[in-house]
Amino acid sequence: MAESTEMDQLLNSFSKFAIHGDTKATGKEMNGKNWAKLCKDCKVIDGKNVTSTDVDIVFTKVKSKSSRVITYEEFQKALEDLAPKRFKGQSKEEALQSMHSLIKGKEPTNVGVTKVAKTGAVDRLTDTTKYTGSHKERFDEAGKGKGKSGREEIVEHTGYVAAYKNAGTYDEKTKAK
């Protein structure tokens, strides 16, 4: 029973890394870039025994000739090839178990992702209460954008000039006389 949950966790990690950065990916096949990311994030690459070149060579060796991706079965074969190199001094089975324990349950990390700048200049430039002129007209009192009505002048066929303060008062003035 424990064996099957370990394999489920390994398959889950494979799927998560397979779809990382690709909106069209199904999670059933992994490309070389994501294979290298998995090896780097899960610390399979240690810089001494296993390098990024070793990872690329193993990927090329296990994939089919015309393919650019590996399946889950080819992924397991790649782990079998890398395990003795990463864990020297262990038997092939022990090395493979150690390799599985490095990968299972892991997800891709988002290192180096651009963060939103929260400096004084950005706050000052995006504060709608400090806008003047025509830019001020694009936002309501709460600072929420008005959308199209804030960008375009909508023509009202009332007979009055736009922004005329006494619009609609003509009839009242003529009745008084």
UniProtKB/TrEMBL annotation:
It is found in: Cytoplasm, Cytoskeleton. The keyword Aminoacyl-tRNA synthetase does not apply. Residues 127-151 are annotated as: Disordered. GO terms for biological process: microtubule bundle formation; microtubule polymerization; positive regulation of protein polymerization. GO terms for molecular function: tubulin binding. Keywords: Cytoplasm, Cytoskeleton, Microtubule. Residues 134-151 have a biased composition (Basic and acidic residues). Its main location: cytoplasm. InterPro entries: EF-hand-dom_pair (IPR011992), TPP/p25 (IPR008907). One of its GO terms (cellular component) is microtubule. Pfam families: p25-alpha. Belongs to the TPPP family. This is Tubulin polymerization-promoting protein family member 3. It comes from Chanos chanos (Milkfish). The gene is tppp3.
